[in-house]
Amino acid sequence: MSTPTPPPAWTPFPDTFAPDDRTLAEILDGGQAFRWRASRAADTPVRWTGTWADLVVEVERSADGRLGWRALNRSARDAAPLVAHYFALATPWAALTDALPWRSDAHLARTVTAFPGLRLLRQPFVETLLGFLCSATKQIVQIKQMLALLAERHGAALAPGHHRLPTWAELAAIPEAELRRCQLGFRARYVHATAQRLAAEPGWLEATEAAPYAEARARLCRLPGVGEKVADCVLLFGAGRLEAFPVDVWIARTLAERYDLRDWKLPALAQFGRVHFGPAAGFAQQFLFAWERRTAGR
Fold first, then answer.
1. Residue 60 is inside which H or E element, if any?
2. Distance between CA 121 and CA 240 in Å, rounded?
3. Helix (DSSP H) and strand (DSSP E) numbers for the chain
4. Dihedrals φ, ψ of 69, to 5°?
5. What fold does the segment set 125-239 form as a domain?
6. Where in the chain is the domain with CATH 1.10.340.30?
7. Which of 9, 118, 120, 14 is nearest to 66 (CA)?
8. Model confidence over 32-76: pLDDT tens digits?
9. pLDDT tens, position by position, 67-81
């Protein structure tokens, strides 16, 4: 008789990462990343399962309320530095929150109080670009569906029921028509054209990720389908550039209604955000974004 395989080891997060359930849901499923799924059995805590690069991880709260993780396709020892990087465990989020101008900005103070422990993920740059290229005019659930289909049909298997996303080199070999079968619609044209460009310019993504913010933003905006908002999302969530301030419909509404910036153009709104909220403007943006989605009943 074969010996049963032991369950993956459960590793608690450090005490500096202890968001409540609502904030945890906002971190994992609030528009930063698109490859997390929540599941819940009767009388058990919510379990989040996420995939990035070649790692599959579950995040769950133990009976004593402590948040922890387990890797489904790596040993805990091998996965630990990857988890620490992805969740930006070394970043002083409490200090960054305190440095935001919430003392002089009543609305920002309200959002910070509503989502204690909110943080930004540090996702793989190459995957973040793909995710936000698929985001045009789509809601989070639809973006998740597109990426799930891309992974299932064109990415390597990592664990039962889990696949990684195709690399940009693999995407370059996939016809645009096949990409459209993954519900990408017109976005397939952008993904296909970007993949062709990246295949022709090895090292371009690495150089862009390492470039100063303004240069990296301008480089990304030269890719098919990438405007200033997508470029800022890629830099904020995939390169840790906290000065990036993406302006989507939610943030434009926030700035119009709560900061009286009606009729401002999007570039002007982004510039206001960077100046008003300071060096971590993109972090402040996530609090504003979370608040708007919650008050809209989403």
1. strand 55-61
2. 8
3. 15, 7
4. -140, 160
5. Endonuclease III; domain 1 (1.10.340)
6. 125-239
7. 14
8. 999 999 998 767 789 999 999 999 999 999 988 899 999 999 999
9. 999 999 999 999 999
